[in-house]
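Quick check before the chapter quiz. The format below is the same one you will see on the exam, so make sure you can read both the input and the output lines.
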Amino acid sequence: MTRPRVAPSSLETDVQRIKIGVAHYGAGLAPVFAAFEGGYFREAGLDVELVDVHGHPKTIEALLAGDVDFINSVGPELILANERHDGDAVVIASAISRSAQQVSARAGLKSREDLRGKRWGVTARKDMDECSIAMAFERWGWKLDDIEIVVVGSDGLRLDLLLNASKVDVAIMHAPETFQALNRGWGLIEDLGRLDVAFQNSCAATTRRLLSNRRDLANRYVRAFCAGVHRFRTDPAFGIALLKKYTKEPDDEVIVQTWTLFSRLMGGMMFPSLEGLRNAAGVLLKLDAIKRAPDPSEVADMAPMAALDESDFFATLLGARSVKLATTAAG
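Here is the expected output.
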């Protein structure tokens, strides 16, 4: 597939250096890696340094401290960090606006009802995974008291910790973990994406400070971000090779299944999901993780995407401008 050119060449003569915090190398960060590998940051006049920061909480802390300029994050973690650190982080574009997690269970557990009363593993309390559990339970008519939540911590490989059947019966998985778990005898019980509930997942974020001082950088960033999302989900060879490189997963079938899942989840209008942020804040409030649910407008800035939407960017990106339309004479 030919790589679409989506940025005006005038941007290339005014190159600005930026730092992007990288929380992990899973499929959720594919928009960043796709924009980087596809050359879309460069086309937007951005010279990018990817900064390795372990985990979403630390990545948001680095953003708030000014150590990085942009991150790829998830709504609950961003809202939580803003309250804890009196932060000004905001979502400026969205790749996935619903839950992208799956529920996996050890051998012997076959159905949703089998999971009631079991030990559900999370790496930390009141994080994105527990928010996903609470969101799903609300739709299932369950209560958190129906299960036991077990914190496995982060002292080791996440997948190994969550698949320790001596401590955990059920775990929230993020692809490729879902398909890696299948290879270890764990079953896929529920795909939370099928609930189709608005929930701000993989998204581009920066700070109000940067938007106030360098809004042009944010405009360039969302241009590259959206181009990366589009390329990832419409170019299988590119997307699969990207996942293989960054996840370092050796099993080709796991990579293919991961790409297929995320290419279906990604896309849409790519504006920050106000309803997804509202739902995320509501869940955090119910978990007593925050004292006040912020209005979505407090943690989202629609202007960079709105500027892109008002330009000819998407018509060009999606190929409409390359179509020769037939004309008929009025008669």
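If your answer matched, good. The chain has two domains: 9-98+199-319, 102-195.
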